[in-house]
Specification:
Layout (H helix, E strand, L loop, with lengths): L26 E2 L40 E13 L4 E12 L6 E4 L4 E7 L2 E2 L3 E3 L2 E4 L9 E9 L17 E4 L5 E4 L18 E9 L5 E4 L2 E6 L2 E11 L5 E4 L2 E6 L5 E6 L8 H4 L2 H12 L7 E6 L4 E2 L5 E4 L7 H16 L4 E3 L6 H19 L3 H19 L14 H17 L1 H14 L3 E3 L1 H12 L4 H9 L8
Parallel strand pairs: 2-12, 18-19, 19-21, 22-23
Antiparallel strand pairs: 1-7, 2-3, 3-9, 4-8, 5-6, 5-9, 7-8, 10-11, 12-15, 13-16, 14-15, 17-18, 20-21
Helix pairs in contact: 2-3, 3-4, 4-6, 5-6, 6-7, 6-9, 7-8
Length: about 475
Amino acid sequence: MQRAPLAVVAVLAATLIAGCDDDTTTITSSTPPSGAAPAPAAVDYAAWQAGTSEPIADKLYPQHGTAALDVLHYDLKLEWQPPKKLLTGTATLRIRPTADAAQLKLDFKPYTLDKVTVDGAVTEATVQKEKLVVPAAVTKDKPVTLVVAYHGKPTTTPIPSHRSDVEPLGLTITKEGGLWTMQEPWGAYTWYPANDQPSDKALYDIAVTVPAGWSGIAAGSLVTQQGNTFRYRSTDPMASYLQTLAVGKYKKVSAKGARGIPLTYWYRPGKDEKFLPSLKKSPAFISFLEKRFGPYPFPTGGAVMVDSESAMETQQMITMGGKGKKFDRAYFEEDVLHEYAHQWFGDSVTPSTWTDLWLNEGWATYAQFLYSQSVEKYSDKELEDYLRRADADLRKRLGPPGKPRAANFAESNVYLCPAAMLKELNDALGDEKFFALGRAWVQSNKNTQQTRASFTAFVNKQTGRDYTKLINSWLDSKSTPRPA
């Protein structure tokens, strides 16, 4: 998520969010259950083993996601028809049940269901209160294949936040008939059935068919473009909030980053050109981060411009908003670096629950401050003084970062306060040991979900010192902790 402390002058707003409709519409599959189900074809689920997770219930937002299912792989075939504002999709989910159950239940906005099958057998399904309910009994650790064909007009979901850049999240239709989405802490379910929570990471294949002259963009690597169909693949597991979809009359710029990493910048002619010079600095931003935190963790990278006031760390393809604010190049470039920093902190290493959002935003915000400091040349004392002033104000208004409020998702306390904690840890360890800690954290925990407990244990083991009190006080105290 975006966090743009442009200079050491003021507490700035923050970046993504989301909320939940109370939609009680029930939609039933237009295809009735068949009498005799065909014998399911043998499926080698080992092909998606890298998508294995250990989902847990999210206490902050228990209405989204489930711990009963581990989605290994999403295969999404999508078609967008702008004149009709019609999204047609077929979602094939490879699922490992984590418990015996009488039904499958996933997050999903009400679309018309055209056909639903489980292991090849047609079944009845309903969408009730934004849950896709499939009455098919499943057995723990015995994978199944769920296929959902659907169509309809996308709608967004509200956001539980008071940020200045809040917008309805999920799949958004532009006035030109294009699409874009940001979906943190949820919103993926507005365009495909999903286990929409951070603790279930999965592999993805996405094919997007669009009108001639348009482009379809998703997270992951662009594998092929055949006619008007764009195909993307993610071979590193991804939480649903890190997926993205953008459709419009885009042009792309190809580049190379550090160590030859392919980079792609998607922009709309006549609308986004002013952002291109900053996007083209991506190799330098990634090199800045690699020097501190180790190799960029994915095979490709890049950015897509959309009509948002915010920005988002969507995996391998960051989403940058170009709407609503007077263009400030330095501010925008700090945002770009912030979202790239999340590729290490949040995308590769993901928090298990939204209570630990600070684990993403603290690191990305501190990396952003380090970059800002390298450009603007302010002193460590100026940074320290600013962070402490900001921390004191934010704790008073929003509470400590380790105990976020459900109604205040991704507000500034989970950015600035943990960044101040990391600054103190940096001061205690010195640069060499601190950046060694950051590199080791990311590289040894690649493609996993982590918690405050695992982070604290890792810090103590890596440094050979007990920093439990420092970490807990910065995450839980109602007032700014005293310097160590």
